[in-house]
Amino acid sequence: xxxxxxxxxxxxxxxxxxxxxxxxxxxxxxxxxxxxxxxxxxxxxxxxxxxxxxxxxxxxxxxxxxxxxxxxxxxxxxxxxxxxxxxxxxxxxxxxxxxxxxxxxxxxxxxxxxxxxxxxxxxxxxxxxxxxxxxxxxxxxxxxxxxxxxxxxxxxxxxxxxxxxxxxxxxxxxxxxxxxxxxxxxxxxxxxxxxxxxxxxxxxxxxxxxxxxxxxxxxxxxxxxxxxxxxxxxxxxxxxxxxxxxxxxxxxxxxxxxxxxxxxxxxxxxxxxxxxxxxxxxxxxxxxxxxxxxxxxxxxxxxxxxxxxxxxxxxxxxxx
Length: 320
Fold this sequence. Notes:
The strands form two sheets. A nine-stranded mixed sheet has the order 5-4-1-8-9-10-11-12-13, sandwiched between helices. It has a four-stranded mixed sheet with strand order 3-2-6-7. Helix content is 34%, strand content 22%. The chain is α/β, with parallel strands linked by helices. The chain contains ten helices and 13 strands. Helix 1 (41-51) crosses helix 8 (259-272). The longest helix is centred in the C-terminal third of the chain and has 15 residues, at 277-291. The mean pLDDT is 96. It has helices at 41-51, 66-78, 122-126, 148-161, 180-192, 201-208, 214-219, 259-272, 277-291, 304-313; strands spanning 9-12, 16-21, 34-39, 56-63, 81-88, 95-99, 108-111, 135-139, 165-169, 196-200, 225-229, 235-239, 242-246.
């Protein structure tokens, strides 16, 4: 990761509004009221980084309406640089997610019609001074449609030329893509350009074109750091020719959402602080464990003090 750059992390992807039935445990269809929060995988990752003491800027488009302005206000509240967030007019709309705070029968319903973040253009990313940033963090959702797909690949090229590390979280959402084959081709190109690739067993299965080949495909990617997440079975990490296997921290989960974004924020902030690969993965895993026990995604991201306290109280789940 490039050092000596004051801008920290540049995160490319969506911001949206999450609505959670209140009180926790209530189904969407049985709700009498909802609680709103900032959402969207890229925005959640940016919040996770800032909560861990890093600087983060978001690159995206939001709708030119009250929901878009809500997202901008939330980014300000969390201390995320939004100088590279543009309001897209016309029929563009921010993502809206209704997500339950329960495990049994959990439902998340996401509205992505005319998604504003897909309006990001090459002109938007060409205005950025990449030399300020240590890393570009991109989620796969931004690659699912044009013009944001071309904008993302242009950002990859500009970041690489400026010496930024490129981090790619596949974040595969089938509803955003025309086919799994298209996702495999496009995300495969992105993975080949990246220094860090993170995905779960389903995502690497899509990348490989065969779920049975997922683990072997991940193992042979060219990125310097590859993390293969397996849910409750833990994770396998490859770095510098070494393979590390880690488990998960046992906690009582309230919901299944937000763990991946928390993991990436915890991992990247730990690497930025100089921690080794194993400790960084464990710190990411601990952040994920905390978030699944709290309501929401962005507001659930732990602070440095909270993460330190959790790690002190829980033994590291290392695996042979």
